Amino acid sequence: MSKGFLVSLEGPEGAGKTSVLEALLPILEEKGVEVLTTREPGGVLIGEKIREVILDPSHTQMDPKTELLLYIASRRQHLVEKVLPALEAGKLVIMDRFIDSSVAYQGFGRGLDIEAIDWLNHFATDGLKPDLTLYFDIEVEEGLARIAANSDREVNRLDLEGLDLHKKVRQGYLSLLDKEGSRIVKIDASLPLEQVVEATKTVLFERMGLAK
Question: Domain Thymidylate kinase-like, which positions (predicted)?
Answer without folding.
Answer: 9-198
